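Dear H.,

Thanks for agreeing to be a second pair of eyes. The structure we're designing against is below in token form, covering all 162 positions.
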């Protein structure tokens, strides 16, 4: 599947997820329906989708799921595409959102550090997505681990424990 087709499908998925989350929020849980709250829901959706694909890749590399090189690469490309959407979910207006979030306030005071970690995540996920389909799963451990460590650095610094 071409990257443009994959991006189109990803954007459609994000749109549908946003609509369904928005509908659920409208049924009494949207904390006022402000743009800030909608942006928080957007970023949470992006991270949930990223986690969905990342967990599947981790299981393949760990031997807890059958390794499918094409599926792994597809998921790696999707994770990388999702990393390009992260910044949109951290607009200044979300600092005052009343939607539930695990984001620590420190992120707003260390925004340059946060942005640097997002860039590291984008670079690490790009390297992972560029690996050939023929890559042995053992060759994927190190680049997948780099993505995981980048996620962990950001979580440790800027996210309250869930």
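And this is the sequence the design step returned. I haven't edited it by hand at all.
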């Amino acid at each position: 599947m071409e990257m443009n087709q994959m991006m189109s499908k990803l954007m459609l998925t994000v749109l549908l997820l946003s609509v369904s989350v928005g509908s659920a929020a409208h049924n009494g849980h949207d904390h006022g329906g402000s743009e800030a709250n909608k942006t928080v829901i957007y970023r949470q959706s992006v991270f949930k989708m990223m986690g969905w694909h990342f967990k599947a890749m981790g299981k393949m590399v760990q031997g807890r799921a059958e390794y499918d090189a094409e599926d792994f690469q597809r998921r790696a490309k999707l994770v990388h595409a999702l990393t390009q959407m992260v910044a949109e979910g951290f607009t200044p207006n979300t600092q005052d959102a009343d939607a539930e979030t695990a984001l620590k306030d420190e992120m707003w005071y260390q925004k340059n550090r946060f942005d640097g970690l997002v860039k590291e995540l984008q670079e690490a996920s790009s390297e992972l997505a560029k690996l050939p389909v023929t890559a042995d799963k053992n060759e994927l451990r190190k680049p997948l681990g780099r993505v995981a460590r980048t996620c962990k650095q950001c979580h440790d610094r800027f996210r309250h424990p869930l």
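Two observations from my side: Residues 13 and 75 are 14 Å apart (CA to CA). The domain at 34-158 is CATH 1.20.120.10 (Four Helix Bundle (Hemerythrin (Met), subunit A)).

Warmly,
E.
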